[in-house]
Write a structure and sequence with these properties.
This protein is mostly beta strands. The chain has helices at residues 26-32, 91-96, and strands spanning 2-10, 13-15, 22-25, 39-44, 50-58, 65-68, 80-86, 100-104, 110-115. The protein has a nine-stranded mixed β-sheet. A hairpin with a 5-residue loop joins strand 4 (39-44) and strand 5 (50-58). The longest helix has 7 residues, at 26-32.
């Protein structure tokens, strides 16, 4: 089940030689409830690519969204992406679950937080 997503974040950089992961501004991680080392799916709005990787925190307030390692072949700086976190939920959790949607501006600053409502 989708737990949270950061919607239309702009990729600020790539590092092909890094050992893997996506680096995300810690402020964005906290807003979305995404933890360090958590598995996320990244959908590139610009080119349609999808990938899975794990998260490492970037400096808070910088707007960093950097794709690292082999995934850097799939995404370019300036691309718009959706970063999605998922979790297994039991039946009781499903009854009250609403995914958190984090909307950001062009500098990847939080502009709105929605609780399960369609965009």
């Amino acid at each position: 089940m989708l737990v949270s997503k950061i919607h239309r974040a702009r990729v600020t950089g790539t590092d092909l030689n890094y050992i893997g992961s996506i680096t995300i501004d810690e402020t964005l991680m906290q807003a979305a409830g995404i933890l360090a080392w958590e598995l996320v799916q990244v959908a590139d709005i610009t080119n349609g690519a999808r990938l899975e990787t794990y998260v490492i925190p970037g400096d808070a307030g910088t707007g960093t969204v950097q794709i690292n390692g082999a995934a850097a072949h799939l995404v370019q700086p300036g691309d718009l992406v959706i970063i999605m976190a998922f979790a297994w939920l039991d039946a009781m959790e499903l009854e009250r679950h609403h995914p958190k949607v984090i909307l950001v501006d062009e500098q990847n600053r939080v502009v709105d937080v929605r609780d399960g409502h369609p965009l």
